[in-house]
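Self-study notes.
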Amino acid sequence: MRLAIMTWGESRNLLSAAAVALFFTLVTCPKSQAQGPIPEASMSAPAIEHPTAVVTIPDQPTREHYFWDTKNKLLFVAAAACNTADFAVTRSNLQSGGRELNPIVRVFGRSSSGLAVNFAGETAGTMALSYFFHKTGHHTLERFVPVINISASLGAVSYGLAHR
């Protein structure tokens, strides 16, 4: 089986043929001219329609949920619990001679208080980013941020427990 490679001249000819075919299709296709002027035959109908009485009731604005609703409270408690478990497993592994794989947490991993500050800051950052999304009207992202944090913490806890 031989692989055919086109030269520049052949590919230019192919592109030119495609451009001509596209132009011909656009000129001859009636759908491509749909935005043109109204044909004379349809001008016999009255141009002005009689108004009808239409009463519209504006939709009631949907009330935005509070930031501290039940779903967010549960998500933040779960995120804090998962971060606490991550702290405990990380601290235990570091005290047993393990090493921190996350380069950001590695800076704080020299002491237990540094680790606690890191995981408390992670929880606070999750809440702050979620609040930012709430205030900007991105309510799906507002709920998605703590879910991502919970997932990451549970992944770190399971990895830490598996590699003791």
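Second protein, same conventions, sequence then structure:
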Amino acid sequence: MPDTDAIARGIGRIPSGCAILTARHGGRRTGMLASWVQQVAFEPPMITVSVKRGRPIGELIDASGQFVVNVLGENPAAMFKHFGAGFAPTEDAFAGVEAKDVPGGVEIADQVARLSARVHKKVEAGDHDLYIAEVTEAAAPELLPPYVHIRKNGLSY
């Protein structure tokens, strides 16, 4: 019998950043707080992002084949508060946030890097969908440190 408490603690120790994942398609656009973003290849430059199945942003990523990752800096509290609860498909996820449309999705002003990506493959991974994508455009004006996140429990957010 596996020790689920030890598994939860161990997985929780894997550091991650936090980002605002955005997508747009057919006049709709949305964003969500994402902590499972990782580089997976140098050539071509590729990343992965994990989205809980059923989240509205998944439909937009599937329809457009693109997304944007806005990497958050060391003080993400305002973005956590704004994006943390999620949005209904008809809600404006960017109300009150400085944002602009860019290739693949939406860039928010409060970020240390922005990565526009084209989906290469979607893989079912438990209760999430894993998108493997090629970075097609980016903006990272200064070398600013990203936020680093450690969870107490690796089996829940």
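Instructor comment on the second fold: The chain has a mean pLDDT of 95.
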